[in-house]
Amino acid sequence: MTEQENHIKELRSRAMRLPLNPGVYIMHDKSGKIIYIGKAKALKNRVSQYFGSEKNHDDKVRRMVSNVEYFEYILTDSEFEALVLECSLIKQHTPKYNILLKDDKGDHYIKITAGPWPRISEAKQLLDDGANYIGPYVSSWATKESVNEALKIFKLPTCTRRFPQDIGKARPCLNYYIKQCCAPCRGKMSEAEYNEYVGEAVEFLRGGSAESVREMTKKMNAAADALEFERAARIRDRLTAIKRMSDRQKVVAARVPEQDIIALAQGADTSCFEVFRFMNGRLCDRETFLMGETGNPKTARSEFLERYYSMRDRIPPRVCLDGAVEDSELLGEWLTQKAGRKVVVSVPQKGEQAQLVEMCRNNAAEQLAQATNRTGREASALDELGRLLGMEQPPAYIESYDISNLAGGDNVAGMVVFENGRPLKSAYRKFKIKTVEGQDDYASMQEVIERRFHEYFDAQEKKITDGFGRLPDLILLDGGKGHVGAIRPVLEAAGLKIPLFGMVKDDKHRTRAIALDGGEIAINSNRSAFTLVSTIQDEVHRFAIGYHRQVRKKTTISSTLTSIEGVGQTRAKALLKHFKTISAIKNADLVELAGAPGMTKPSAQRVYDYFHTNGQNT
After folding, report:
1. CA 462/CA 385 separation, integer angstroms
2. 446-459: pLDDT as tens digits
3. Separation between Cα atoms, residue 249 and residue 272, nearest integer Å
């Protein structure tokens, strides 16, 4: 037993002596620094779990446990008190392995630069630069949205060109041609006219759309009465743009007046929480929190809610989540006490609320994709597939297997790997079936899986963690529930708990469902998970078929050579390895043939005669 294993055993022994009372536990590393703080309803049960079998832990917990030197604990009178104390201690010590959020809710401003040809932008602080500032605002997102709306409605430039220095120096950019910029760079707009545009945009930002619409309507009518039809038409177009913006905002509206929607997207080592905040039924703010690996999603959601609402004064009457959360009733009680009124924590299953949660989750997946150099579609597909299969986390590393043969001959298998939704071709593997004669796909698949995980255990002994030394998050077999039923015992015998499913095709060889031991999960063809599974199934089939054709071709070529007297399998293989092709063997002279590995002069003469006597050809 190693020193580390002895240490974990000693920690478990200490944990088993803890009382079954509620409280807070505090993990320290070798330097004495606090690395994790948690709460428990029964300290003995919760803390001892950390030092049990590491197979029950995710990677984040395993890393934390490996760094624990000792722990201490504080007893409380109730689980609720433990939650309150935990929040306070985490805020004080900011432990490495707890979910920690950076609060960016500082002041935000709208900046209007000084001097001629002013620009409007969002700013995070007041500067002594002579500019005018509107604000402060609490929400960075709302400030940016307001500025973007004003720039689009009043067609103000967003480029880096400087005015008047750059006027007339280059053609206008695309925004001018799609009618989103008045293009002062063309030199056809006076400074006074431009300043009027900016002034109207500032009025819009100061007074809000309703007040701005009333004032602009008055100006439009006055211009029409004065026969200034061009000016009236310009104002009319702005009013139309404001209405379009307002209609777009109505799309992101809800019947519940005040609520927060929170969703989680997880990657291999990065996660993202997205928060949509609704006031008066409208989306008024959104926040994105990118962080490292979060582990179990139920625990992650619970920790996130604690950290997030510890930083927020406003707590809405309803908090909607995209999945189950640990200690939901306890969290509801804590939020209710903090808010001073009833707060409901729920996971919507259908209707408008479920659609809002889905939209929030898709945005979280998109933000995660951008942070990890993936597409939003890939992140969303993995997240959706994980949920569809009841997995705790999206499957970042997927292995898929298919058997290929012709009437039971040249039996082979292909293994393909998808990492983060993309093919990882360096990890693809080919298998020649060694123990199965004839056409028996179940037995062939069993042999392949046994060989694959035999390689895994060998790699573990050699401390190899890539290739066969890495366990997949998910195994997909090209086949139905029969294949799954045949392979499940193989994994169980090896002591491996890896999610295992089959991929079922319809009569047109298109993916239609995912197979379980006792049934199927239908996949809707318009879901991103369907596209991913179909891609994996097509790829593993292509790879297995390609390898089968390659083996069959070699078998055919080899049988041609072994039909020559004195050339057996070994000599035929050596010839092919040396000359590469039958054509090269045919065109070789006697000296070249005799000089090949494993050849003698008599055998070289027989091969030469075979291809050159009596018109023999292949």
Report:
1. 33
2. 999 999 999 999 98
3. 24
